[in-house]
Design goal:
The protein has 240 residues and is of the alpha/beta class. It has two domains: 6-129, Response regulator (Rossmann fold); 137-232, Arc Repressor Mutant, subunit A (Orthogonal Bundle), CATH 1.10.10.10. It is 40% helix and 20% strand. The chain is built from eight helices and twelve strands. It has helices spanning 14-26, 37-46, 64-73, 89-97, 110-131, 163-174, 182-188, 199-212, and strands spanning 6-10, 30-34, 52-56, 80-84, 102-105, 137-140, 143-146, 151-154, 157-159, 179-180, 222-225, 229-232. A hairpin with a 2-residue loop joins β8 and β9. The chain is elongated. Bound molecules: calcium ion. Calcium ion binds at residues 12-13, 56, 58-59.
Amino acid sequence: MSDKPTLLVVEDEAHLARGLKLNFELDGYAVDTASSGREAFSFLARTEPYAAIVLDVTLPDMDGFEICRRLRDVGDYTPVIMLTARSLVEDRVQGLEAGADDYLTKPFDIEELVARVRSAIRRRGWEREQTAPVGSVLTFGEARVDFDTHEVTVRGEQVRMTKLELDLVRYFAQNSGRVVSREELLKHVWKLANHPNTRTVDNFVLRLRRHFEPDAAEPVHFLSVRGAGYRFLPDGDDDA
Ligand code: CA
């Protein structure tokens, strides 16, 4: 196994796959290429975890959204950067909902793709550092949440929270920095698939903001991402 970070490039256009491989190798990565979903999954099954996956949306056997969704469903959070021929908003939303980290429209500048991959990998490493100690106690801002004892304090004051609220906080913490859709939250926290009422999620996020945010109207930890869902930032949002 090479010491270099390894990427999986899933792209069925052979010349583009070759070009991507070459460029990423020049940037210091080892690269595996797959030209179908089936081939991608056979790589994913037999190798060490990849540093990141570059995933074309249109493939001969299954689409990239499906591949990404399947990875996330089995708890694989390798950074995924999706490539698509269309710049439709629905595609972007679908990509984010499938759990992609980033999204680029063809034709794209290869330098930009290399930069995006690098930043997705860096971001994921940073998140791991931030959330690794989560085990049973999460601290962020002025809050401390003990998932074992269900003790929650904010600015030194005890706060009573329901099991479901705590489950939601835990899921956000495990996915810090990543955009999570309402559908994903319903599925993983509420254990409801295809539940039509995503407003449930909004109501609970409001409750978390009231518990934890210095100002619930100007959240810095539990952020809305328009058209996509929510993003949890343990260190707060600098731009807010
Ligand atoms: Ca394609």
